[in-house]
Amino acid sequence: MTTYTGKCHCGQTQWEATLEKEQQGHILCHCNTCKALSGSTSTLNQIIPKKNLKITKGEDGLKVYTYCGDSGKPVDCFYCPNCTSHVYHHQAVMGPDTIILRTALLADGLREFVPQAEIFGKDMLGWEKEVAGERKVFSVMPPS
């Protein structure tokens, strides 16, 4: 396990995330909600136990935006109230102890991690290419 530091754009919120070797990579999400929230074609994420994320600065100030996911259950997006960088999301369908961490905000994650998988491939734009290579691209979510 390796501990990575992360921070939002303005630095008001900072954290440490401890990742197993197999979690040291990006899961690209191409869903339309991620497009709308990020202003991009995908987001860079990893699924981790909630206990592996420690907010070291600004935890009390985090804001939450909640929407209904494709599962029909709530998705809570935790973000910095100043710059609106999303730190992590919690999908109720995944249970109370699992979160989705934004790996692009880890100090070393953006440059060191490679795509491990892509989800919501059905929502990829026609001009997008799969970047996970020989790895997996899933129409929606990988099988449980």
Automatic annotation (TrEMBL):
Domain of life (superkingdom): Eukaryota
MF terms (GO), sorted A to Z: carbon-sulfur lyase activity; metal ion binding
SUPFAM superfamilies found in the cross-reference section: Mss4-like
InterPro entries listed in its UniProt record: CENP-V/GFA, Mss4-like_sf
Key word Cell cycle present: no
Annotated keywords: Lyase, Metal-binding, Zinc
Keyword match Metal-binding: yes
Residue span, CENP-V/GFA domain: 4-128
Family: Belongs to the Gfa family.
Protein name: CENP-V/GFA domain-containing protein
